[in-house]
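Job type: complex structure
Entries:
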Amino acid sequence: MKLTLKIWRQGGEFGNGKFETYQMNNANEHMSFLEMLDVLNEELISQKKTPVAFEHDCREGICGTCSMVINGQPHGPLKGTTTCQVHMRHFNDGDTIVIEPFRAQAFPVIRDLVVDRSSFDRIIQAGGYISVSTGQAQDANAIPIEKDVAAKAFDAAACIGCGACVAACPNASAMLFTSAKVAHLALLPQGKVESHKRAKAMVAQMDEEGFGLCSNYGACEAECPKEISVANIAMLNREYLNANLSRSDS
Amino acid sequence: MANTLNGNVPPGQLSDKWTQYKSTVSLVAPNNKRNIEIIVVGSGLAGASAAASLGELGYKVKCITFHDSPRRAHSIAAQGGINAAKNYRNDGDSIYRLFYDTIKGGDYRSREANVHRLAEVSVNIIDQAVAQGVPFAREYGGLLDNRSFGGVQVSRTFYARGQTGQQLLIGAYQSLSRQISLGNVELYNRHEMLDLVIVDGKARGIIARNLVTGKIERFAAHAVVLATGGYGNVFYLSTNAMNSNVTAAWKAVKRGALMANPSFTQIHPTCIPVSGEYQSKLTLMSESLRNDGRVWVPKKLEDAQAIREGRKTANDIPEADRDYYLERRYPAFGNLVPRDVASRAAKIECDKGNGVSPTGLAVFMDFASAIQRYGKSKAHTQGIHNPDEATIVKLGEEVIKEKYGNLFDIYVKITGDNPYKTPMKIYPAVHYTMGGLWVDYNLETNIPGLFAIGEANFSDHGANRLGASALMQGLADGYFVLPYTIGQFLSKDIRTPKIDPNQPAFDEAEENVRKQINNILNVKGSQSVESFHRRLGKIMWDYCGMSRSAEGLQKARTMLKELREEFYRDVYVPGSNDEYNPELEKVIRVADFFELGEVMIVDALNRNESCGGHFREEYQTEEGEALRNDADYTYVAAWEYKGWEEEPALHQEPLVFEAVELKTRSYK
């Protein structure tokens, strides 16, 4: 396959950032997208040029490290798929592919396609947990949980924290990410106890980090590699509203 | 005569040791804990659970990870499940049985007392995880579901679809996040440990590189815990994440820590086969699939050839012409034999010419029988008593999708084939390393104050790890073992003031790191880091992989030495230290893989027997099974590294079996 790659370069010799164009002549359809970039980087290194910085780790679609916008779509053209699981057979010989970082005020660019997503960690630190210390747990079967409820909680818990929802959102909102955690924990009896406090604290942190507001656009769900549902956002709104109406948590 | 090591196993009956130990171990009072600092390197299951639990106890913890977030650690990729001796299924499970299965599965090369303790605390892990909100699979009654894994005859594996590692890691990460918010743990993400600092014989700190700015930073503490995972990436192609590496552990080895049983590598039988030269990593298909997947190759060589050449497909081979070789050779365990046994059997079939991919290196894993079985059962529960074939298949596929849907999705994405309709193609690949830093019963290395937990240590899995036991061990160490055992060391240190990072030992270590970085940047050769890593991996896989021989290992050692020499002469690293530079990160890791690789070869040469994942061609039974030599090798081989020019020195910890009898492992 022959490809033309337009890649965002930023930092180092590329300063505040610009697109660079690279011709790729030795891609093939069995490669993953990241393997195609590996081949490009090997080529750049052999010419003593600076390879393209991009983040990746498990390459199995589960760690949430890979984070690029391919032809305007976070994680590329396939539904429910991370960049590392996109294979070149989904592109055509002769294609031009535009590759950019996830763009959001709360995700500053570190280098090229690499962004700092530690704002997500701080949202979790604000309350995305159940306050149980090691050793405090009762027997695991002491709390029966309906199979369907457990499955719903799982669906929300499947979020990999990649940030595609933010990159897809015209407002760079982190509502889908935050709501997935709020819903995962609020659905379970163990997590219900502090669900109001949690929702308020996480939303406050989300605002603090500079993420935008949700305007029900829905691009987050469409681009989410784990297909997390916007129904979680409704649940977050309900928890948040209840939290503000309830006196005990104020 | 090799030096003898003492595992510091407490006295008493095996089943009472841990209880007695916990009741008598020295404690640190809460007011003193506040003044004691601990560094935890790594944020996977072991690291995150340890950092969180130590923070909860009141220690001041610094958690260091090279990831952008603790949640990225490679534990996240574990698919199938986690074992626990809960006996919720009433199928005869017990702590003793989990202990026994693990000792036997490890081919009698692990330490009895550690394994028994692991089995004991396994039950607490499930409780803890559920309390944290880990959404394990449940039955209609609302109680937890289980499935089976290889090498056992009970159902003790708890799971969360095919994402058990992810869910458990998120549970630990959330606990860690809570401690961070409370100020008990400080998180240093994007920091990579590049040296260990020893002051007056005790581990008192580390040197780490800030991966964003390149700044070399000092971290001081009363104790250092390494939870830095395994070193499977020495083979280049493995199921490990791209950034998994041995560097933190290896820097400790270069400071005197012992590396135990480094040649004990787990080759996982069910991975998606290699497809091309550009390939960067291999993807696992969970062992849980062997609950329902039947492994086979064509009986006739000409059929195998026709499949390789694309003239036939699996579905063209009639039932009578298929060899379900695991069921044939191991009727008692069938497709659920342990990993080492299943891997070797696949290699034997492919070596005979029965492989089914164009490379000849793949076997089938087939779900057709399971689809039929589940389809009929589901039709029955729906009141359909004479279902037609299409209904059976439809219902059966629904059940399979619910059980393994995400694994099947991964398979489709990578290969483009549909495993509901045609069998998966699989082949063994490097997955886990049983070897690791030598630790005693306290999980303390031979360097006082330096602890190693999770995959980074060697202690619990012997020569072969059973499926769903890595998550168990990582969390056992972090939640329930280290928080007790570290007190044994720290209780003697309550009068030690805050460790000063400006003392000479830190100066020397920092200088050491700078020197290494400058040396490698100054090579300015012509070949990429990646190309050397690939070549190193090939040497290790060809000669120190699924089967090994003295001749091959000696050859590999020479090849590795030559390649390392070329590496230091011709590697090219773009950029500088003072910036975000992934190539620099990689070159430091590959440099350490070279040194580790040689010690792995030395270890494999030393062990003149076959056991578990270590298969020496010279030592096998007539049926091709591993032949142990208990008289001479019932010991842990712990290697002291003495620099590139010198032979590593062997230390031995004799393994004493009081509760179990050493037997030839049989799964027939």
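Summary: Chain A touches chain B through 78 residues (CB under 8 Å). Chain A has two domains: 3-111, 118-245.
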